[in-house]
Amino acid sequence: MAKNGLDVKTAGLSIVMLAMGCLKRIVDRRDHLPGMAVLYGFSGFGKSTAAAYISNKMNAYYVECKSVWSKKAFMENVLKVMGITPGRTVSDMLDQICEQLAKSGRPLIIDEMDHIVEKVAVEVVRDIYEGSRAPILLIGEERLPAKLAKWERFHGRIMEWAAAPPADLNDAKVLADFYCAGVTVGEDLLTAIHGKSKGSVRRIVTNLDLVRKEAQSQGLSSISLKEWGKRDLYTGEAPQPRRFQ
Amino acid sequence: MSRKPIDQQQPSECRQAVWEEIKAQSQSGAFSSTEIAHSTRLGVATVRDYIVGLCQAGYLVKVSRPMPESFKTQYYQLENDCGNDAPRVRKDGTPVTQGQGRQQMWNAMRILKDFSFTDLAFNASTDVHRVAESEARSYCTALCKAGYLVGRANQRYSLINSMWSGPHPPQIQRTKQVYDPNLKRVVWAKIEGGAE
Asked: Is A93 helix (H, G, I), strand (E, B) or coil?
């Protein structure tokens, strides 16, 4: 729960707290310490939710990489996010980015970092860091650390590797409070949802949506496993093969 | 004097223009509000209000220059250059919070890409500024009309990537139009008495 502020439910998710702590540590670091951090984890674990929260909270620039991006495309997009007209050459653009980051003191969040790791574009991120010493948070899938390991000069500049945790039961409660406002979701049903969702924030939300709709259509103000019955919960798995009899 | 709707203002008639002029002039030393007003072609009073605010917030500092008593022009110097974006401050130096919710929603939309307004309200809230579901709903509806979002089944929306025009959130004006500050033009207007 957020201290000294509004009681906003988003801040209570474990992934958001982790990402927030991570970004705060690289923002408040001492000068001689490296200023980059990596947040990695499976898809659906709430990395984007965390990114949305921390970029709003810490006033960070956020870019999401695309697999087709070259060095130049990457920098053009960072400048677009900053609201600056890109200069003519790649090195002009690099200077513009570094200047804006250094002067504004705002952190940079790079999501879907996996997409540019395989290319030389990863060197640009290092150049931006060296040129601005701005805090940079890299976000990517589970295999991102392994992919980054190839770039030795990158490794030493990373202060923290944070693995996105699977959503726990408390996270499910936090989400239920928001997404099922007005409907009390029973402890047993919530546990079932949490179990079926296998730690994915996205699946928990999908299931809570189903539950809320069911409760509303039945006119219930509280719903537990008994009322839910044998209805299916969304697990995200492909259906079992049918057997030919 | 009341402020004109933003689409009727001169392109330079905003704080961004003043801030850019301050940055440009401060490279050659101190400046006065009259000088800034002159080169941005804005009213001295408008510029002075903003400069006083910037000074209160610590972005500018007052400098004294040896000059005769009759010239009591106050000169300023850029103290804290925070980059490209004009600081949003009131005259007393406190930050402007109007439009904070829209800014947070606009940021979150690009990250989420596909969302319901409940998702948007959840993801765009921070402990400093909470976004209400009703606020998210009305903003989504307006942006959908203006063509930034496409509506999908189950009241879900997705942002059209190429429509993300820049860091500033499109504004819903009281006159029922949508103004995009990145493109500096009205992108959608309700036509009264049109063919229904």
From this structure: helix
H or E element that contains B115: strand B114-116
Chain length of chain A: 245
Counting beta carbons within 10 angstroms of the beta carbon of residue A5, is it exposed (0 to 12), middle (13 to 18) or buried (19 or more)?
middle
Please identify which residue in the block is written with the tokens 């960070």.
A60
- φ, ψ of residue A226 to 5 degrees: the values are -65, -50
Cβ contact, residue pair A104, B83, below 8 Å: yes
* Nearest CB to A83; choose among B122, B125, B168: B168
Alpha carbon distance B145, B134 (integer Å): 17
Q: Taking the CB of residue A220, how many other CB atoms lie within 10 A of it? A: 13
Two tokens, residue B33: 């509000």
pLDDT tens over chain A, length 245 residues:
334 456 677 888 999 999 999 999 999 999 889 999 999 999 889 998 899 999 999 999 999 999 899 889 999 999 999 999 999 999 999 999 999 999 999 999 999 998 888 776 788 999 999 999 999 999 999 999 998 888 887 888 899 999 999 999 999 999 999 999 889 999 999 999 999 999 999 999 999 999 998 899 989 899 999 888 888 888 877 777 788 76
For residue A91, give both structure tokens: 């090195």
Angle at which helix A169-179 crosses helix A201-218, to 10 degrees, equals 40
pTM above 0.80, yes or no: yes
- Vertex A147: Cα angle to A145 and A151 (nearest 5): 95
> B144-153, pLDDT tens digit by residue?
999 999 998 8
Q: Are B189 and B177 in contact (CB under 8 A)?
A: yes
Q: How far apart are CA B50 and CA B53, in angstroms?
A: 5
For residue A178, which residues of chain B lie inside 8 Å, CB to CB? 118, 122
For residue A162, give every residue at least 6 positions away whose Cβ sits within 8 Å of its Cβ, in sequence order, or none.
Answer: A18, A19, A22, A37, A38, A39, A40
Q: Do A8 and B108 touch (CB under 8 A)?
A: no
Rounded Cα distance between A58 and A30, Å, is: 18
The reply to whether ipTM tops 0.90 is no
Half-sphere exposure of A155 (CA within 13 A, CB side): 8
Task: Give the whole-angstrom CA distance, residue A89 versus residue A141.
Answer: 31
Whether B111 and chain A come into contact, CB under 8 Å, resolves to yes
